[in-house]
Amino acid sequence: MSVVVSVRSGFAGKLRMPGFWTVITGLAVVLLAVFLLLPIANVLAISFFDAETGSFGLSNYWQVLTRRFYTLALWNTLVIGICGMLGACLLGIPLAFCTSRYRIRGRAVISTFAVLVLCAPPFIGAYAWIMLFGSNGAVTNALSYVGIPAPTIYGIPGIVMVFSLKFFPYIFLMTENALNTINKSYEDAAENLGCTAFERFYKVTLPLVFPAVSTGAIICFVLSIADFGTPAILGRGVRTLSTIAYAQYTSEMGGTPTMAVTVSMLMIVISMAALLLQRRILSKRRYASALTNRPVKKSMSPVKSFLVHGFCYLVVFIAMLPAFTVVFTSFLATSGPVFSGGFGLGSYQRILRDSPQAIYNSFMFSLAAVALIAVVSGLLSFIVVRRDNVVSGSLDLLLMVPYLIPGVVMAIGYVATFRNPPFDITGTALIIIILVFIRRLPYGVRSTTSILRQIKPSIEEASINLGASPAKTFISVTVPLMMPGLIIGSLMSFITAINELSSTLILYTARTITMPVLIYVQVIDGEFGTAAALSTLLLLSTGICVFIVFRFSESKEAAFV
Amino acid sequence: MSAVEISNIRKSYGGVVALSDISISIPSGSFFTLLGPSGCGKTTLLRTIAGFHQQDHGSIAVADQKIENVPAHKRDVGMVFQDYAVFPHISVSDNIAFGLKQRKVSRSEIERRVSEVLDVVQLKPYAARMPHELSGGQQQRVGLARALVINPKVLLMDEPLSNLDAKLRVDLRRELRGIQQSMNITTIYVTHDQEEALAMSDYVCVMYGGVIQQAAAPWEVYYSPANRFVASFVGANNFMALSLNGAQQSIAGTPFILPQASKIGAAKGIAAAIRPEFISVNSATDAADTIRLPVKIRQVSFTGREMAVAAVLSSGEEIEAITKPTPDIIDLRPNDDAVFVFAAKDMQLFDEGITGARLS
Lengths: 561, 360
Ligand SMILES: Nc1ncnc2c1ncn2[C@@H]1O[C@H](COP(=O)(O)OP(=O)(O)OP(=O)(O)O)[C@@H](O)[C@H]1O
Ligand SMILES: [Mg+2]
Description:
The complex is a heterodimer. Chain A folds into two domains: 71-328, MetI-like fold (Orthogonal Bundle); 337-561, Orthogonal Bundle (MetI-like fold), CATH 1.10.3720. Chain A has 25 helices and two strands. Chain A has helices at 2-13, 20-46, 59-66, 68-101, 107-119, 124-133, 138-145, 156-180, 184-192, 197-226, 229-234, 241-251, 258-283, 302-330, 346-354, 356-386, 390-398, 401-404, 407-417, 429-452, 457-465, 470-498, 504-507, 515-524, 528-552; strands at residues 332-335, 338-343. Chain A has a two-stranded antiparallel ribbon. In chain A, strand 1 and strand 2 form a beta hairpin. Chain B is of the alpha+beta class. Chain B contains nine helices and 20 strands. In chain B, the strands form four sheets. Chain B has a six-stranded mixed β-sheet with strand order 6-7-8-3-9-10, sandwiched between helices. Chain B has a five-stranded antiparallel β-sheet with strand order 13-12-11-14-20. In chain B, a hairpin with a 4-residue loop joins strand 17 (307-313) and strand 18 (318-323). In chain B, helix 2 runs parallel beside helix 4 and helix 3 (107-120) packs across helix 4 (136-148). The longest helix of chain B is centred in the middle third of the chain and has 18 residues, at 166-183. The chains are: A mainly alpha, B alpha+beta. The A-B interface holds A 4, 7-8, 11-12, 14, 16, 19, 456, 458-459, 461-470, 472-473, 477, 480-481 and B 50-52, 64-67, 69-79, 81-83, 85-89, 98-99, 102-103, 143, 146-147, 150. Bound molecules: adenosine-5'-triphosphate and magnesium ion (MG). The site of magnesium ion has 2 residues of chain B, from helix 1. Adenosine-5'-triphosphate binds at residues 13, 16, 18, 36, 38-44, 192 of chain B.
């Protein structure tokens, strides 16, 4: 009898130990607080201390909003952001319409190219266009040979063109997916009610895909205003907020980067405002419908077919032109920085001889960051999807933040936060790895979250019920089932990690230089040969990852947006 | 001796009370079914026993050990899931061995017990298959085998057959009951299919609104419902307003004197209930204590074994009788006049309200 009694009180009296997931949730909160929120808070704080006097107040913001130097940049940024977004829509929507409504030969090629454009290093577009249309570019020279002045690639029109061609795949892939899942009955009904083809598109189809289009557009806008490499290379005196932030930061080295930070805050505000505006508009338009009547792909008359195919291939070909140019250039023979005519592997020999460190760093940093992302995103997505508490709800929201904060801002925040001993990690590989990890974590979490939502919770409950602890259940049941999502998420974050420029450009030292940074430096110095060889290497690693994602993912292209 | 003793369990989600102070004791080796309409708290109760929900207060004891604060993975209660929840990434035999491995059972022992239970659920030939190569019914057998093999102190099942087609459901429910009886394992079973509940159970526990309405043997629940809700939820029933007039009672203007009326006392609104199969149509019996209600026929439908005769009382209340198909009943037409006849003792009286108490 006494045995029974003691067993009873043994259970009843014991305080519950904090469970596995409570501990993990706690750790996740600490991790994000220290490496995401703290640096941002620091940046924010810096912006309120006057650049000259150091007094607290809004004087920096006042300067930014009144001095012509800044207001012009603000104007440029908005113009570039909006025009880049519109340009991307102009290319992406018709392309999506063609591929989803007509039978297109080689559709796979088109979407593969689109994905490659999306994943290619962000700035190769800019300098590849310089090599073609710049003051000494191949096309410029050829045209001036026959006496035609080439259009200039520099300045706002050039930047807008590059952004349109670079970011249209977001619009294309999202819109195409939406068009493919519209119930055809709507369009049939419109036709039945007497709409012409154009009216039908304009009054029925377009409103139905508006949520997808606007989501793609907002991504284009946010990326356009945050991009640093393109305006830096093509700007020629046209300043944007991101180039100003970088220039001010580097010139203020040693002092507090006050104005750089204030400018950066303005960029964040613009991104957030754009996002909120889009959310507001979207919230009134949610259409759900069953896909009972799938859209069909029509065949076309020969002339129409020729035009439609021509348009589709022209768009993706032009968008891929920078990549082709870069690969082509990398195989040109050079002597020093000058192309000497003919082909050769000289550029590759030079990068292997002069910059093995950058290549090694790029791969090591990205792999380390991706390993962290894989582990953390697996755990975080479980908290977000399976646990029902305040923290899990706000984690979801918090993970949106890295999308919105430009790399420059995060980097400045990291320097401001982690430069005081004993936590001084500036100049180390660690700071770059952690920053890349935080910036790319959302890609991993998004992928693991979406697969976890498809796994029924009862599977995990069955495991618990059979006696496996929550930790054991996660490792032996959840992780194996999550594997495809983990792999795709890791590859996606690897692609973005290895191409990271805007934040590493601020954090790098001679020992921690990476390929994108080196390419940027070489392009500024006019060393196009080696820059092309490095870019080709980046393109190749990116291409391989894209290929594997295609193999693993069911909805192929959709995985990339 | 009771295998499961639940006392005063309360569970609320935010402000919504899903279980209000549930107390049950379940005898060892019995098949105990929770029956009730959607949202009445059956799943919540089962998952609270399994440890997937934390109760607000109350205690749960299994085999005399309190488990209400034990983490779910240490409770030793087997569970069979509605959606099978068979691990898709490991084979049938690995699925069944899963719980044994957690318990650090030796390899040879695992092999022996897995093979034994595979025999019980008739899955021997499928041991090496992956779950996606099995039909729904076979997957649910894996789910059952996986729960049985760990010799749980109690087996919990939440609508385990509801995803299967009707024929298979009946076959599997016989098999399930057979296995349960031969292994003599205490089982708590959730269903909202009352036929299933009545056919399988030693005890049926009818729940409504997070409260237990009645827990008793199937025939008791059917013939002697504790309140109006049980009377209407289990099996078909006709409810009519009963009027009191001194010592005399009446339904729809037809007066009679009930033997059970003495207990009614001063209750205000009273509902009289008579099951359709107790009513005969136009029969001439003149036995004492019969009630004869004049009705107008609405519809007569032939269902194979029997006839369903729907009619309406002069008060407008609808009433249905189920009888053997005889020629004169088949000949009834809508708007014909008829008389519904039943014994007064078969009629039960309830207080007003959905869960009005039984008065007779
Ligand atoms: N996670 C939850 N959060 C909030 N309320 C819940 C939750 N789960 C259940 N409820 C509510 O608790 C009540 C009981 O739900 P429960 O799932 O136990 O019903 P059930 O009897 O199993 O129903 P069904 O037959 O439909 O399975 C319902 O009102 C339900 O809405
Ligand atoms: Mg339920």
